[in-house]
Amino acid sequence: MNVAELGGAFAAIGEQTWRGRQLAEAIYRQRIVDVEGITTLPKTLRKRLKADGWSVARPRIVQVFTSIDGTERYLIQGCADGLTVETVWMPEGDEGETGDSAETVDEGVTTSQAGRVSLRRATICVSSQVGCAVNCQFCLTAKLGLQRNLSAGEIAGQVVAVLDRQGVEVGKDRVNLVFMGMGEPFLNYDNFIRAVRLLVEEVGLSPQRMTVSTSGIVPGIDRFAEEPQEIRPKLAISLNAPNDEVRNEVMPINRKWPIEAVVDAARKVRLRSKERLTFEYVLLGGVTDQPKHAVEVARLVRRSGLPAKVNLIAWNPGPGIPYSTPSAEAVDVFRRALGAEGVPVYLRRPRGRDIYAACGQLKRTVETTDGDPR
Ligand code: SAH
Ligand code: SF4
């Protein structure tokens, strides 16, 4: 609920509407999880709310996996049922934003009044659905199928839970959000965009530090293009193949919305000054990582006429997925070939591979007896 909705809930029980702001402050800024702990409200009111069954009901981190590279992967439980999603914390960012205008200023490490060394930057990878219905052949999340949509509160609540765990000072620490966790955000559009509104208006994060990634859901991109800039994240499109023929194979959704339809929709997004669209490109060994593919991708990006950059991601392995990770040499040759064609290109460093936290590895895992996620 946003300030207005919380105010309405107070009005409905005969309390002052402006109490909604106090409650929003407590939930989203102070990150209080318990109605009784909201000391800005009078004690009698807190007692009454509690007795009436009001609760903050923020999603809970129920399990943490820590990578040798500092990445943390969380199992987070919503409120409606026992289902969990995964959220990833990447200190120092995930490099996905490399080359974006928002990141060109070097923000040095500073020390806060409390003597705490501020984070220079970090990225939180956020889930939008439990599982995913899109069925990309290289992605582990696809194996789950779609179990259900997350609510707006569950999407935003995931972020608040992680901000809280990490003691992030919003407005001071440089935290980026990427909607690149489990699920296809544009197949849960209403809840996704409501969550963004909560994160911008109530939590205080900037939409220019958020990126949403889509597999190319055209009606979703069309709606996204209509959003006001004050709440619109940046857009990334999972291209992942040099042409429709290969894309049909690795991303069957391409048969419904082929590359050209996706690019046409993306053109309708009115970019901010210096903003660029990102094409994500997963390099599948032998399948999408050949030099001739790089030439095709460059042509495609140029033909789009869009200010764009390409983020390369070497495929991260998952059990039962019949692809291979490209060789370091193939990745390098591909990157140089794109660069030589004049396309801005960045290589994303895999984060948390050892704990199954890297791109495409998010799937509810069970603990084995030796403690390894499987
Ligand atoms: N559903 C959205 C967002 C989540 S996936 C989308 O597909 O865009 C986030 C990114 O991870 C996508 O670019 C996807 O192509 C990539 N990805 C999926 N599986 C991967 C894997 N095994 N290795 C590397 N990247 C992968
Ligand atoms: Fe879904 Fe994205 Fe995975 Fe495709 S890559 S199955 S759209 S999460």
Task: Provide an overview of this structure.
The strands form two sheets. Strands 1-2-3-4-7-8-9-10-11-12 form a ten-stranded mixed β-sheet, covered by helices on one side. Strands 5-6 form a two-stranded antiparallel ribbon. α1 packs across α2 (19-29). With 374 residues, it is of the alpha/beta class. The two termini are 36 Å apart. 30% of the residues lie in helices and 17% in strands. Residues 132, 134-136, 139, 141-142, 183-184, 215, 238 line the site of iron/sulfur cluster (SF4).
Considering the chains and any ligands shown, give keywords for the structure.
binds S-adenosyl-L-homocysteine; alpha/beta; elongated; 10 helices; two-stranded antiparallel ribbon; binds iron/sulfur cluster; single chain
Oligomer: single chain
Secondary structure tally, helices = 10
Tell me the overall shape: elongated
Low-confidence stretches: 101-115, 366-374
Q: State mean pLDDT (0 to 100 scale).
A: 90
- Which strands sit side by side, in order, in the main sheet? 1-2-3-4-7-8-9-10-11-12
What profile does the largest beta sheet have?
A: 10 strands, mixed
> Strand percentage, roughly?
15-25%
Bound ligands, named by name, code or SMILES: S-adenosyl-L-homocysteine, iron/sulfur cluster
What separation lies between the terminal Cα atoms? 36 Å
SSE order, one letter for each helix or strand: HHHEEEEEEHEHEHEHHEHEHE
Rg value: 21 Å
- The tally of beta strands, per DSSP, is 12
Topology readout:
Layout: H1 3-12, H2 19-29, H3 43-51, E1 60-66, E2 72-77, E3 84-91, E4 122-125, E5 129-131, E6 146-149, H4 152-166, E7 175-179, H5 189-203, E8 210-214, H6 218-225, E9 234-238, H7 244-250, H8 259-267, E10 277-283, H9 291-304, E11 308-314, H10 328-340, E12 345-348
Parallel strand pairs: 4-7, 7-8, 8-9, 9-10, 10-11, 11-12
Antiparallel strand pairs: 1-2, 2-3, 3-4, 5-6
